[in-house]
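Sat 14:20. Reprocessing the chain from the morning session after the first attempt stalled halfway. Input below, unchanged.
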Amino acid sequence: MKGDLFSSDNMVQPADRPGMSVQNAKSIRYVVDGEMFARQGAMVAYRGNLQFERKGQGVGGMLKRAVTGEGLPLMTVRGQGEAWFAHEAQNCFIVDVEQGDEFTVNGRNVLCFDATLSYRIQTVKGAGVSGGGLFNSVFTGHGRLGLVCEGNPLVIPVSPQQPVYVDTDAVVGWTARLQTALHRSQSIGSMLRGGSGEAIQLKLDGQGYVVVRPSELTPQKEH
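Finished this time. Tokens:
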């Protein structure tokens, strides 16, 4: 067979290392030797001896999912082989989490991660249910985390001298030691008159980085 489809840019080459790597802009390859986790339904291809099982969240996890909507529905991948993961042709990126690190990320942006990482769901400080109910997944441990993002993300440095204000529908995640709070950028009078549609943002202050996608959540993408 000939043609651009079969060029080296598209052809899968033998794996050069175990674990997670970016296959191309839209997919992540994972060479499995044991166990890893991925979002349910994200596997697009695999080869080898692999088993895919829905990961139970327990009663506590079910309650969190019911209250927060965060859920992060996962599947466990076990065995020896390699699998490819993708989600709605979104761009894929990898974050290396080191011991002592903490990375907060929106569950909708999680694609897959090493079994050596753990996560918990928590309320974003300063943004309780009355403020819109913002809940994120916090990853800790040592390993790699695969993320998806609509378009190329913006990674914005945050410092005590320059806090950053982000749209709550556009934020992907942020690093540890950043403080969060809701910020109102419009007066009540402006909001009553219709305003700009950008009334409330999430303020991040401290030292670190915030990751933002170049689009807001659209109604058809909410679920």
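Confidence is low (pLDDT under 50) at residues 62-69, 128-133, 187-197.
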